């Protein structure tokens, strides 16, 4: 064989591999796509077989494609929000913890044989 025919066969093999790999990559990326936070599928009913309708597939898919909104409220970010002191015994998020009166979390425990408390 001449060097030109060997080169031609080599180029054909390389181009075949390139096409094969690119089609595999396209298939892989199509299968790995996730819905965005503002998905266009929210509220859209999907056409499915009767078997899938019976198993509740529509409900599962509609919940999956529903848009998600995660945010911090403005109330949590307000500058005038003073958290409760750590040693006060109150929750960090107790409303007006400085003006609250009474015991925060009074310690009460039942008496049982395992705790060996005296009566």
From TrEMBL:
One GO-annotated biological process of the protein: calcium-mediated signaling
Species: Heracleum sosnowskyi
Subcellular location: Secreted
Pfam families listed in its UniProt record: RALF
Stretch forming the signal peptide: 1-22
Record-given protein name: Rapid ALkalinization Factor
Superkingdom field: Eukaryota
Family: Belongs to the plant rapid alkalinization factor (RALF) family.
Alphabetically ordered keywords of this record: Disulfide bond, Hormone, Secreted, Signal
One GO CC term, this protein: plasmodesma
Gene Ontology molecular function: any one: hormone activity
